[in-house]
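Morning!

As promised:
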Amino acid sequence: MRGGREQGMNDSDKELARRNIRTALLLGLVALGFLVAFIIVVVHK
Amino acid sequence: MAHAHDHTHGSDHGHDHAHDEHAHHGPDKGIMRWIKTTNHKDLGTLYLFFSFTMFFIGGLMSLVIRAELFHPGLQFVQPEFFNQMTTMHALVMIFGGIMPGFVGLANWMVPMMIGCSDLALPRVNNWGFWLLPFAFAMLLSTLFLPGGAPAGGWTMYPPLILQTGAAFPLLIFAVHMMGISSITGAINVVVTILNMRAPGMTLLKMPMFVWTWLITAYLLIAVMPVLAGAVTMLLTDKYFGTSFFSAAGGGDPVMYQHIFWFFGHPEVYIMILPAFGIISTIIPTFARKKLFGYDSMVYAVAAIAFLSFIVWAHHMFTVGMPVTAELFFMFATMLISVPTGVKVFNWLATMWRGSMTYETPMLFAIAFVFLFTIGGFSGLMLALVPADFQYQDTYFVVAHFHYVLVPGAVFSIIAAVYYWIPKWTGRMYNEHWGKIHFWMSAIFINVLFFPQHFLGLAGMQRRVPDYNVAFTDFNEISSIGAFVFFLTQFIFIINMLACCFGWFGRKRDLPARVWEGARGFEWTVPSPAPYHTFEDQVELPDYELSMGGNGEHAH
């Protein structure tokens, strides 16, 4: 995240990029949650 | 990240050097442009070319099926190969044709419609696309393996699918790769829509195409992991000694069907909700009225998405389940007709007393409304438990879902390409040939699929290469329809390629607002759309929002 890739970015760009990554990770966790829930349902059947 | 830096500029321009160096460069040259690109327009183009390649391959497979079914008895292929064709046709069309087609349209249009410079995660976008050619190369390569391609149906029901030979692990891996591609694409779309809308574009001012894609993306995030889990369990059942779906080992093959359709039914809506968005975009443009009932359209899409999670067992009424469960799934399924009906009536109300013109995209959109509704009605028939016991596994089901998917999803993709290709390329398609393409398609899609209703009601089974001679006439009609429909699509392909490459002397001479009735951010940029758009934040005037629920449409 930090260092080279953020060089030349202004503050609002950096904040947007960080927000995008955070939202994407959250959605990734949601997807993972569906997988885990699925496994729990199957194992307990 | 770096790309977001390159092209996402707020009001602060305190880094002019980096800005000049990166933000205004054009695309790279040659093949590397397409391999390395993180530009949403490039990736949209790649997705669309990939999608149409897959439509062509899947179409060829359908011709093998229809050629074999032209007459009773075995004509051209062996039953084993016929089963491979039905299975591969479905996998290629669903995961390779329709889904990437809609993702391509989302890539091109979502950032332009909400006024941002690119998708939120451009490198992830590149990765998501480039997984697909490898996934499908692997899947299609199974045709040349000993034992051939998977032949147990696209639903991959055990125990049948576990009899697949060398193709099996490749099938599972290909499904995993498609799933990763879909999830990354969906996350990208959601993040972009939630975080990067232009100032003033509140959620209930977004274009309907953006709304439908937002909800579709949530569906993808929810159900693709379930499919991944299910096929992984198939893999372990076959190679690692587990018995998830093996009755002999204490497992339950019916459980797989429940799991698959928990994915599979939302998947059906993944393939149709973006189509609703396209039709909701095109009809107001050519009716020259704002979309009737914008808010109700949004809530209808959300309701359909919610209901899609509680109807899965209507695909498996005959498998055996408690009557109360059958009743629940029957009524829940019938409930879907309410929000869907809201949408259809809203489209009709939008056209009502509009200043209608009938350019090719509008023709396809109107055909969508009529023909998709036919598919909806046969779906309602299939929702009835006692009737479904008769229809299950017959050509009536084949007719039903093809009406929803071809004059439904595929027509919407065609309509969208006609509608937006002048914006993408700066060149207008040939309207005369567009209309010929439309009428040929609209006629022969019905020649192809309508007789299959009668075949199904008369008892002809699906996924069988041979049939009773009594079914010959309708099968011949259907096969003729298939061949003519397939050939007709070359008119479309040539017409579109001519726009892309400037064949037949087509000039780039279009205004920004190609269609006079069109509203929205995408029609404020020049045609063709520049390689980079909306690098600086812009606010959309109310006038451009008038297709939504706010404001009046100016004539």
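Residues 84 and 151 of chain B are 4 Å apart (CA to CA).

Hope this helps with the figure draft.
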